[in-house]
Amino acid sequence: MMSRSTTTFLVAVLCALTAPALRAQTIGELIRLFALKGEVDGLKLDLMQRKAWIEIAGGRSIAVIRLREDDELELRDGERSLLISLPLAEELEAADFGVLVDLCPPEAGTYRGIYLVGLGVAVALPDGRVSIEEGLFTQGDTGPEIPDEDLQIAAVRFRDALGGADLAPAVLASWQRLLGAFLGESVEGGVDPWLARRLLVGGYRAGLPDALLEDLAALRVSLCWRDCVRLESAEGRRIVILENAVGGLLRREENAGLVTVRREWGTDGAPMTSTAVYDQTSGALVSAETRIGDWVAGRLVAGRYQAGERVPDLDDDRVKRQHLIAERIPPHVLIVDLEGDPVAIVTATGRVEAPGRASPEDFLAGAARALPSIAELDLIRGYFFSYVHDSPDPRVVDLVGFPDLKGEIHQNADQILARAAGGVCLGDCDDLAELYQNITRRQGRLSYVMNLPAHAACGWLRQDGTRWFAELLQTGPAQRFEGASAAEALSRAYGSFGPLAEGFAERLEVLLRFEGDNTRSPWMLGWRIFVEPDYGATMVEIQRCWHMHTYGRAETLVRAMLAAGDDDPANWRELSGILEQARDFAGALEALARAESLGDASDPQLALRRLALLKSAGRLEEFRAILGRRCDEFRVRKDALRTADLMPLLSLLALGVDEPGLMNKVADVIARVMITSRNLAIVNAAASWNGDAALDRVTARLRDDRETNMLTHLMAGLGAQVLREAARRNLPLAAGVRLEKNCEDFIVGGQFRFLEGSDERLAAHAALGWFQATVVGPERYEAMLEATPWPGTGDDLQHDAPRGSGLAQALRDLPWVRCSDYWALASNDVAIDDLLDSATRRARVAHYAPRSRAAFARLRELGLMSPRLLQAEALAELGAGLVLADLDRIAAAIDAVVDMNDRDFRNEASELLAQVGARGDAELFGRALDLWHQKVRYAPSGFGIAWAAAAISSERARQAAEAALRHYPDHADLIAERDYMKGRLGD
Q1: Which residues of 283-315 are buried (b: 16+ CB within 10 A; e: fewer)?
Q2: Sheet-wide strand order for 61-66
């Protein structure tokens, strides 16, 4: 047998002559595998033909030939040959069963299925993975094959049935995408064939009526296990290989009474194979193991993972990040069932059953006990969790979402565990973060769901000597961030996901959920909540008061901390915010001044708060002087504007859009911001598409940048708002202010460059119409809309269609503006316009209401109604009903709020009820309030409406408060808040 050094040398020669290093290294490892097993007698080289022969014990040889440039090898033995791609060869190497696959006859054709070979049995799965059975077998009777046509027929029949059913558009679209993933079509969004199969096998039927269940059952039948190959060895061993239509593989060893199942996984690039052997008679687990491999220097290595070993880091940019935990994959065994689905994880400290195989309480308790370290907790993400977007329809929460077809629904721990399919939970980042928080809190960690830029994670702090560590569990790999202080460690953790504002550690965001809500909401708190349990509990209770709009109790809690000597600037900022909500603007300014004196008075956030409070307090001369001075400072600014500066600046400018004396200054600064932003990445969002390939690449890279997307829309909307306010007050802007052109660039270019799907495109058309109506004049523009035919088909609404410019493009946009929720937005805008008298307001809303209804009716005919548009329709009906004194309209709109059961929509509707109702007739407002409370039954909205009405009328605020108490007469917090409100607003 050749020595290792000789083999290595000859392989190196072959490598130099035949192929790139990566390919050659793979051949070398295959030869090394044979040599280590003692089965290589020699190696022959033909340097001219670039071939190598591996001499096998017994005089046989296998030729290894570089066949093509597309990463394929040909392994040849005599007249028989089989093409094996390079990844297959790597899988064979990783499997490490000790025998290389022999070659199957060329007449096998597709090379799909189970093949008999001279040295063993090669199992070639449709997706290219290969496993090997040792021993010499002969083929017995072969069971029926599973033609792809069976699956295709069942799937096409089900797809046709879906199309003929009366389904909500979001339900139909979700099922069509899921079915595409099931069939192996390219579906963006993380749903693969395995997940689609598990959903269907597990009884998934989200949103389907009973009429479709028969077709769904027929599709499930096409997934069942079929007898594929029967094998028998000379020693009498009998094996039956079963296969299902989506690549599942099962082996039953009949004479031994054993069933062996293998499941391949991949977590962060580390391939894992879980093997479980069951007694065929009793079903008892005989043995199980987990084998872990990793990519190292371009090759795949594998072996059993032992305690104390470390899996090497992956050789890619993502894993090179310095904050990945070092102990990434700890020793463990994953047990799988007969279909390859997870049953349990076993660690040195216990066993945790897979979701769905134990009650939620047992799973949470088991995970807290058996997964004590951050590395072991990260196994939940690797084995028990699959990322899917939230349902696009909050009324059908179990629907699978996709990148361009999704909503925002935050599952609690019980809900995500109840939704498990095949032992795997379904959800997105906030769902997994909440599950992790539930587990880690049981372990004694002071964890929170952290609201990171475009992301959510579960995090906590740990101190080791003088160093602090912020540890995160998320949908990506677990991470750890080090700092000299708790604030520094947290800032590094948050900052790794996006730029931080100055003083960030004092205002970091966490996501909190309160009873009755289907989403968590962001709350800005200081770093101390991660360190001090009592302080954190008090601050969470104060946020609950904000949620309930019980500001009296919130003020009491904060003042108690201050009285006890906790003079933290964060507490004074909290008090300032509470007093602002209670309309004590003078007190809010005093508390803010105290926070500034104890902290950094140059904090831009505090300066912004002060300016807003000056305006609310009626100190307008001081407000106008400061804002005018800030605008002048920016107008002469020459240095580049950072992206992190934009949000505070836009918030500052928003305070002056309705100030006639400042309008030209504000408009000029907004125009300059837009021009300056062209030096940032945002320029690529704002530019109209002209087919420029370089611009297209950059814009594609920014498509998922939610911050850039948000800033683009904010700039466009703020500029359009200034133009509208100027038009409303008949105050033309100065000739040198080029705001109109820049707004057009951002709205027509920027907003239309970040769109995904028809719903977002319709929203962009509504915004475009709102802007164009401001420029042209509402009456003239709306006459143009009404003279425009309706769109004939929804197929014309393509988010990736190139856009032109000028009048031709504006005319092409008119049909879709007419068909959008433009009319609904315009109607509600008029309903809260204080510059209009009541008669004019009613006349304008009466003009918009039928046009809004007609637009939504046309969208229904085109199959384009979405949950967002249903909400826009309900808000338009609510506003119109309040202005036109139409109780039927109001009741129907409130029914839609109940049906949607979405926290954000409910809050938006209650605020509109307060804003419009408080401007109208008291009797109508009272009847609308009673309808709201009778139907919605959501206690937090009681004083939410009352305090929102207080901005318009103290009398209407008291009326709303009494209405809330009529429906919640025993609610102690609301009773106390009524008395607090009386003290603040007067009797």
Answers
A1: eeeeebebbbbbbeeebbbbeebeeeeebebbe
A2: 40-46, 51-56, 61-66, 72-77, 80-85
Strands across the sheet containing 113-116? 113-116, 120-124, 130-134
**Which secondary structure element, helix H or strand E, spans residue 541, and what is its range?**
helix 533-548
The per-residue DSSP string of 194-228 comes to HHHHHHHHTT--TT--GGGHHHHHHHHHTTS-EEE
C-beta pairs of 345-350 under 8 Å, 24+ apart in sequence: 345/370, 345/371, 345/379, 345/383, 345/384, 346/288, 346/370, 347/371, 347/376, 348/307
In this prediction, residue 271 carries a pLDDT of 63
Residue 219 to residues 186, 714, 911: CA-CA distances in angstroms? Answer: 20, 47, 46
Which residues make Cβ contacts (< 8 Å) with residue 361, sequence separation at least 6? none
How buried is residue 127: exposed, middle or buried, by Cβ count under 10 Å (0-12/13-18/19+)? exposed
For the chain, the average pLDDT equals 76
Q: Please give the helix or strand (H or E) that residue 169 lies within, else none.
A: helix 169-182
Distance CA 217, CA 262 (A): 27
| CA-to-CA dists, residue 737 to 643, 668, 679, 722, angstroms | 23, 5, 20, 12
CB of 688 within 8 A of CB of 805?
yes
Cα distances (angstroms) measured from residue 573 to each of 111, 567, 596, 597: 69, 11, 9, 11
d(CA 761, CA 752): 7
Burial class (CB in 10 A: 0-12, 13-18, 19+), 787: exposed
Q: Which of 656, 569, 641 is nearest to 605 (CA)?
A: 569
Sheet holding 508-512, edge to edge: 479-483, 467-473, 455-464, 448-452, 508-512, 521-525
Position 160: which residue type? D
> Within 13 A of 840's CA, how many CA atoms are on the CB side?
7
How many angstroms separate the CA atoms of 415 and 408, rounded? 15
Asked if the model's pLDDT at residue 851 lies above 90, the reply is yes
Residue 12 token pair = 């190196």
User: Which comes out higher in pLDDT, residue 820 or 135?
Assistant: 820
What does the block give as tokens for 786?
A: 């009404």
Question: What is the distance of C-alpha 816 from the center of its chain?
Answer: 29
Higher pLDDT, 592 or 286: 592
> In this predicted model, what pLDDT tens digit does every residue of 584-633 receive, in sequence order?
999 999 999 999 888 766 677 788 889 999 999 999 999 999 999 988 88
Handedness of CA 718, 721, 725, 727 (dihedral sign): positive
Quickly tell me which residue has 């202080």 as its tokens.
Answer: 485
The residues, any chain, with a CB within 8 Å of residue 126's CB and separated by 6 or more, are 112, 247
Q: Are strands 385-387 and 425-427 parallel, antiparallel or unpaired?
A: parallel
The length of the chain, given as a count of residues: 987
Identify the three-state secondary structure at position 938. coil
pLDDT band at 641 (very low <50, low <70, confident <90, very high): low
Alpha carbons 791 and 819: distance in angstroms, whole number: 7
Q: Is 289 left (phi over 0), alpha (psi -120 to 50) or beta?
A: beta
Q: Which amino acid is at 119?
A: L
Q: What is the pLDDT of residue 147?
A: 52
- pLDDT in the model for residue 222: 77
Residue 928 has pLDDT above 60, yes or no: yes
Half-sphere exposure in the Cβ direction for 735 (13 Å, CA)? 0
| SS3 labels along 656-719 | CCCCHHHHHHHHHHHHHHHHHHCCCCCHHHHCCCCCCHHHHHHHHHHCCCHHHHHHHHHHHHHH
Could you please report the per-residue DSSP string of 874-936?
Answer: HHHHHHHHHHHT-HHHHHHHHHHHHHH--HHHHHHHHHHHHHHHTTS-HHHHHHHHHHHHHHH
Single out the residue of 543, 716, 693 nearest to residue 646, CA to CA: 716
Q: Sign of the CA dihedral 495, 498, 500, 505?
A: negative
